[in-house]
Structures
1.
Amino acid sequence: MMAIKRLKEDTEYEEDPCQHDGRVRTFPHFPGNWAMQVFIPFMASAEFENLVTSLTASLSAAIFLDVYKLSHKELHVSVSRTVPIRHYWIDPIVQQLREGLSSIHRFTCALQYPELYTNDEKTRSFLALRIANECQKFQDIVRVVDGIFGQFALPAFYKDPSFHVSVAWFLGDVFSKDANDFQTNLQGVFEGKVCEKEIARSLVLQVKEVHCRIGNKLFVFSLRGT
């Protein structure tokens, strides 16, 4: 049975909720601060998009709310929180990330089942596909990132992280009631689609690099070849 998780890392950081479909900031804007997040990108195929369309259609019909699919450019697995940093921290953090992540080998994992998440503020909920068996390699990456964040007094990642790719979101938290029904319906749709060979292949994630976004800048760190 899928569990409903509380989540912060997928919260948007927009200024005006009225201009951004009701999304709100988790931390306030401060002049000179840059928002930073470390993550692993997920490349979606047409088959994956078809799966997500089926899942979001099922969820939207069940909750009677608009469910917004994330664009293919937004799909990722978080390995850090989104945190505010000072501009002069960028170079040393990026250099340490490049050095620390260079010792981690590339690996392959898979998205295994749909799961529902709600942020701590209960302002937004998410439909995600969760990584199979909580691959140990993700924990290795988080340890590197947490070690670097700690040197700058930045918060570590979650103690028991649930690695996943969020694929859609909607406003509010409607899972307090009839949660099992929502999850059962989603699991049924997922199992009906994943038996198709191409759909199953689309769930495989080959982790070859880690990305870090700081403001409008993107840094890419390649992992070691096998």
2.
Amino acid sequence: MNALHRLLIVTAALPVGACSTIADLPNERIGGATLSLANGMPAGTVQLVANGSTVSLVAAVTGISPGPHGFHLHAVGSCQAPDFTSAGGHLNPLSREHGTANPDGRHVGDLPNITVQPSGTGSLTAELPGTRAQVEEWVFDTDGTAVVVHANADDYRTDPTGNAGGRIACGIIKRS
């Protein structure tokens, strides 16, 4: 079984393993993205899944250096290599500061770090703030939304970027 097949299996299993009861299982996929490195190689997948009015992001990455990496939703659905700056800043429709550790934070695009194992794979499941209707309005607006993996860990407090370093992988979220 190649690495991409293993990644797809892990991605499909993540929503089940992260929930405590059958009622907590997401019952609808509302969007997704394929992550790519600057050289065009695939770097993983991201799914937006809903359960009632709650939306969660489920991600699986591969081919990224081991360790923690900042993982954010960015305000523009554009991933122009090599630096992915076309994705703009973090998704921040509520005009908040950056970071879950910032008393004035957090952007909607602030997500936990994704930790990549020595094998080069990592996964993350995170609930997005806001109702399903709000999340859909913010993510699927006229200029879209990108998911970005950063070179370094997010420190969860430094505004506006979390000192997460350069952008090393990017994907554009598309509605399902």
3.
Amino acid sequence: MAEENLKTEIPVVGENVVSKHSKGNEESSELASTLENVEDVGKEVSKKKKKKSKSKKKEVLQQTDPPSIPVTELYPSGEFPEGEIQQYKDDNLWRITSEEKRELERLQKPLYNSIRQAAEVHRQVRKYIKSILKPGMLMIDLCETLENTVRKLISENGLQAGIAFPTGCSLNWVAAHWTPNTGDKTVLQYDDVMKLDFGTQIDGYIVDCAFTVAFNPMFDPLLEASREATNTGIKECGIDVRLCDVGAAIQEVMESYEVEINGKVFQVKSIRNLNGHSIGRYQIHAGKSVPIVKGGEQTKMEEGEFFAIETFASTGKGYVREDLECSHYMKNFEVGYVPLRMPRAKQLLATIDKNFSTLAFCRRYLDRLGETKYLMALKNLCDSGVVQPYPPLCDVKGSYVSQFEHTILLRPTCKEVISRGDDY
């Protein structure tokens, strides 16, 4: 009886246990499926987040190669990178903390931003040009590639934004002011020393900046001499600094170098009749000269001024003269009304006023605008004093000249090397 009762009770107990287990299994399977759903949802959310983050990354534009995106699109905030900041010397250190001087800078922010935009274009263009430079290039192709890149990146807009002056690509003993005229077949050679000097401008605020290219390492000390002399000049500049003191410092560094070329040693010289200069709005040479030898003028630098600090190192006489065919021209900044008898000269002047005003230009730029048979009219404008010709400046034939240049701004609180980049 007890066994029967036990037997009959066991199935009942077993039945209850099984039912409990089955319910538990059902609940666990429901929980598992719920967890799987949560995981799936989590994965979808994370995918969406990744997609969003990827889309955000895509929104940050990178410059193309070759460069084609205007810098205004690369900096949608409208704020452009500040140049290298250098502090003034001891007697002007108080400016850093002066609230009055800081307020002056805040008021000048739009001006600073314009010149920084021009400087950013310069940096990006020269980075690209350095990457494609090689012996065998036609000089005219080099210049046109550079200038067309500037036009794209600066969003060329008449006199509001564009090229500040013709691309100087002077070779060897030619120190400055040479660019090929239309039809010129000059080719860049391995043993050439080329000064690449070009300018950008926004609202008339000009960045004037140059560097030297030499493929043969034999010329490295010559390039180093002008680069270090330029950096020394920049360090010496400041508010109330005499221009002659800057020149003396530059010459001391420059002439501490020598260079061996094809087995002959040359003492590097500063070219005594070439200078840096102050820069005005739409005025590349604004009146003050920054010498690169001692004994210059006693005039002082002033707050708010822009200066192009440039140095020329030479293995020749250290003195230049005008030579070769002229390519550079510029309307006289001070010229008033001048009566012109030649109708063609009047037409050409109208073209110059509209497209360049008082910015420098070259014959290639006139060709690009569709001007033809203009040489007599151009000569007439030069003879009348309306336009000034700037022929190439040359040391003795067979010598070599290198150049480095930066644009600086003497801000109320500090000195900003506007055109400084990672390259020089």
4.
Amino acid sequence: MNEQQNRNVGTPFLEVKNLTVEYFSKKQMVHAVNDVSFRLEKGKTLGLVGETGAGKTSIAKAILRILPDVGARIAGGQVLLEGENLTALSEHDMRKIRGDKITMIFQDPMTALNPVQRVGEQIAEVVALHSTGTKEEFEKRAEEMLEMVGIPAERYKEYPHQFSGGMKQRVVIAMALACNPDLLLADEPTTALDVTIQAQVLRLIEQLREKFNTSMILITHDMGVIANTCDDVAIVYAGNILEYGTREQIFDHPCHPYTIGLFKAIPNMEADEEWLHPINGLPPDPTSLPEGCPFHPRCDYADEKCRQGRIAMGSTPFGHQCRCCHMDQVLKEEVK
């Protein structure tokens, strides 16, 4: 039994099956997530990679059931957390899970924090919602979490505007981990930060994740972050997963033209090349996705077969999964 087969044995901690998310208005329908499936083991990290608008954040919001009440819906599929279908739960039951079993670090810390409430009180409020105890105990837990993310407990009574961008992101992380969640959804947690602070925040998340054995879904554009943080990787494009496997499989043996294009667009400091090799064209309009493979308008290997029907996910020679009609041809060309 190989590594990929072994990972698929038994009930996974999190399993997303055929998830479909739509945003709609009177005039149009946005197909944000289209029949997405993946698994996540306890204590592991899955990276969702893709261009802006690929549907990565919509996947995370659907798992947490925080899509807008108006104009958005989970149109199909299941989200199973330890075998329990979250999409079938009532809103009352989901409130018990949010902040306790599942939490989310949002991309912009300023929008995640209440500007007129002290940061310590915001952390203590999360703890109070999901545990029993006294006000003093909640405050003490909030102070402990601030200390854990490298912020002095004395800053408990300060407001968000008194913190730098990196410090605000640390507060958001403290809120997310205050109740020792089983699953952490990190939506580009370092995008708004400078490079040195990015490294500190990522290191902090990884340390806390290991301490609490927390599973994580990390959304990012940065392949370097994926390489240093994730166990598994899903390449997302136009609401579809085009390639899915372990970090080693995706980085060592990319099989889909889109995945290969992403790697070619990364600067290679060892190669003597004057220009980068970007992927031609733009992602499709999610209100009018192309028939067949959504990547075919930008793909050098596309033919009539790629334009007909939904392309099935298939196995690669390396043990992971890829959604491409011409995988064998792609691999032959790339080896050359």
